[in-house]
Design brief:
InterPro entries: Nse1, Nse1_RING_C4HC3-type, PKC_DAG/PE, WH-like_DNA-bd_sf, Znf_RING, Znf_RING/FYVE/PHD. It catalyses: S-ubiquitinyl-[E2 ubiquitin-conjugating enzyme]-L-cysteine + [acceptor protein]-L-lysine = [E2 ubiquitin-conjugating enzyme]-L-cysteine + N(6)-ubiquitinyl-[acceptor protein]-L-lysine. Its EC number is 2.3.2.27. Pfam families: SMC_Nse1 (PF07574), zf-RING-like (PF08746). One of its GO terms (molecular function) is ubiquitin protein ligase activity. The structure is a single chain. By secondary structure, the chain is of the alpha+beta class. The protein has three domains: 78 residues, Aspartate Aminotransferase, domain 1 (Alpha-Beta Complex); 95 residues, Arc Repressor Mutant, subunit A (Orthogonal Bundle); 47 residues, Zinc/RING finger domain, C3HC4 (zinc finger) (Herpes Virus-1, 2-Layer Sandwich), CATH 3.30.40.10. The chain is 41% helix and 16% strand. The protein has nine helices and ten strands. The strands form four sheets. A three-stranded antiparallel β-sheet has the order 1-3-2. A three-stranded antiparallel β-sheet has the order 4-6-5. Strand 9 and strand 10 form a beta hairpin. It is globular. The two termini are 39 Å apart.
Length: 235
C-alpha cells in the first residue's frame, strides 16, 4: 500500500483529536477517502487498521504511534495518538501553566492511588490546593472545571456519574509513567500481562482481569485463572 494523502490526512486528524472512537475513526476515513481517494469505492471498516499500520510504520521512528485500545469503563474501542517519548501535556509545551500541569499530575497520582482508579468529581476539584508551590496562588476551582472538561474531550479523563476515571488516552500514553512511579499499586492482567486499570474483579479473590480477556478465557474454561474457583461475575 502506497503512502498517500489519505494517510497524511488521517494522521493529521488523529493528531488534532488525540483520541477517536472506532466509529469516529471509520467515519473520518470515509470522509477523507471521498476527498483524497483514487476510487469511488467506500472503504470497509477493517481498512482503518490497515491505514493506521501504514502510518505507524512511518512515524514510529519519531517516537509516535496511533494505538488501538479497548476501554473497559465504556466498553468501546479507541484509536489514540501517542507521543512515546514525552507527553505533550507534561513537558515541552506552552499550552498550560505550571499550576495547571501540577494539577494534572495531582489528578494522575490520586486516581492511581485509589483502589478502583476512580475519584469523586468533588475530590478532583479539591486537588486545586495541590496545584501550586508555597507562596504562589493555587488554581481556581472554576479553572479546574474547565480543564477537566478540556482533558475529557482530549481523552485524558472520563467523567461518569460524578466519578473521574482515567480516559483511554491516559491509559495508553501514561502507562510507562504510571508503572515506573506507582509500581506498588499498578497491576497487570494475568491473562495478557498488560497493565490493567479497569476490568472485572473475581468474586472470590482480589484478581482483576480485562473484560475482553475474560470473555475469550471463559469460552474454554469456567474457573478464575488466579484462584481456580468457579467464575461467577457477569460479563
Amino acid at each position: 500500500m502506497a503512502y498517500t494523502d489519505v494517510h497524511r490526512s488521517f494522521l493529521q486528524a488523529c493528531c488534532n483529536h488525540g483520541t477517536l472512537s472506532k466509529e469516529q475513526a471509520y467515519e473520518l476515513l470515509i470522509g477523507i477517502h471521498a476527498r483524497y481517494g483514487d476510487s469511488d469505492t467506500v472503504p470497509k471498516e477493517d481498512e482503518v487498521a490497515e491505514v493506521v499500520a501504514k502510518i505507524n510504520s512511518r512515524i514510529y521512528r519519531f517516537d509516535q504511534k496511533i494505538a488501538y485500545t479497548h476501554y473497559d469503563p465504556t466498553e468501546r474501542d479507541f484509536y489514540v495518538f501517542v507521543n512515546l517519548m514525552d507527553s505533550p501535556i507534561n513537558r515541552h509545551q506552552n499550552v498550560y501553566t505550571a499550576p495547571e500541569l501540577q494539577y494534572f499530575r495531582a489528578l494522575l497520582r490520586e486516581i492511581t492511588l485509589t483502589d478502583d482508579h476512580q475519584l469523586p468529581l468533588i475530590a478532583c476539584l479539591n486537588l486545586t490546593n495541590q496545584s501550586s508551590d508555597e507562596g504562589t496562588k493555587p488554581l481556581a476551582k472554576a479553572r479546574a472545571e474547565q480543564l477537566l472538561s478540556e482533558w475529557e474531550q482530549s481523552g485524558y479523563f472520563l467523567i461518569l456519574e460524578n466519578q473521574c476515571y482515567f480516559g483511554p488516552r491516559t491509559i495508553v500514553e501514561f502507562e510507562n509513567y504510571l508503572n515506573t512511579n506507582f509500581a506498588d499499586v499498578i497491576t497487570r492482567c494475568c491473562l495478557c500481562n498488560v497493565t490493567i486499570f479497569y476490568g472485572l474483579r473475581c468474586a472470590k479473590c482480589p484478581q482483576i482481569l480485562h473484560r475482553e480477556c475474560m470473555k475469550k478465557y471463559l469460552r474454554r474454561l469456567t474457573n478464575c485463572p488466579s484462584c481456580k474457583e468457579l467464575w461467577t461475575v457477569k460479563l
